[in-house]
Amino acid sequence: MPEFIREFIDKIKFIYLGDSRYLKLIEGFTNTLKITAGALVVGIIIGIVIAAVRSSYDKNKESLKLRGGIGYHILKVFNAICQLYLTVIRGTPVVVQLMISYFVIFAASDNGVMVGIFAFGLNSGAYVAEIFRAGIMSVDPGQFEAGRSLGFNYIKTMRYIIIPQMFKAVLPTLLNEFIALLKETSVAGYVGVMDLTKAGNIIAGRTFEYFVPLFTVALTYLVCVIVLTSLVSRLERRLRKSDR
Question: Please, what's the largest Cα pairwise distance for the chain?
Fold first, then answer.
């Protein structure tokens, strides 16, 4: 075995096996997946609700305004609240939102992973909401009329007809948001959460070897993105086959 390969293997053993430092990398990767998956669920729920409110207001505000009544004013207030949420969340850095969540809103909590899920989910929800709203607005208006002709009310029309079509249209864009969310979790270390990036940085600081730990972190993120892209590509192909 060449000398440089033997030296590289010894270095890997020293970095990861010494003091069982590889366990920190495993813990960080696990926490990154937990935060990303949890934040994705929170973001999708928030996104669907806000997109439904905003698209309903955009599509029906003229008819509701002419009809009058309390329904128009309630929807207008909800739409204003959603717009305020979107403006605040998209107008401030995610790391600031994370620090406010950890040090202010949940100051009494020591569960950094759950705080991270809340903060990143709240942030992702603003972007997912606009993705979903664009998808809903892109659905042919005739689909709403078809739902009404089948006897569906507005909520059932959205649930059974509009939202399934919307998901097919926005899937590639939603993937990009998921990838961005996965990488954004790398700032969770600002509040002491042992995420993947934080683990790599700790290992580098203790061994004074920065290339291998940080390269490992970057490679792990890259592999996750490639796997996610492949899974969504398969899902898109299945959806296209179901359309036929």
Answer: 83
> For the chain, what is the HEC assignment?
CCHHHHHHHHHHHHHHHHHHCHHHHHHHHHHHHHHHHHHHHHHHHHHHHHHHHHHHHHHHHHHHHHHCCHHHHHHHHHHHHHHHHHHHHHCCCHHHHHHHHHHHHCCCCCCHHHHHHHHHHHHHHHHHHHHHHHHHHHCCHHHHHHHHHCCCCHHHHHHHHHHHHHHHHHHHHHHHHHHHHHHHHHHHHHHCCCCHHHHHHHHHHHHCCCHHHHHHHHHHHHHHHHHHHHHHHHHHHHHHHHHC
Question: What pLDDT score does 243 carry?
Answer: 60
Token pair in block for residue 101:
């969540």
Residue 47 CA, distance from chain mean position? 10
CATH (residue range 20-186):
1.10.3720.10
Q: How far is the C-alpha of 51 from the C-alpha of 45, rounded, in Å?
A: 10
Tell me if 213 sits within 8 A of 15, measured CB to CB: yes
Amino acid at 175: L
pLDDT digits (tens, 9 = 90+) for 111-124: 889 999 999 999 99
What are the φ and ψ backbone dihedral angles of 111, each rounded to 5 degrees?
-95, 90
Record the pTM.
Answer: 0.86
pLDDT given at position 148: 76
For the four alpha carbons of 188, 189, 194 and 200, in that order, the dihedral sign comes to positive
- The mean pLDDT value of the chain amounts to 85
pLDDT tens, position by position, 153-163? 777 787 778 87
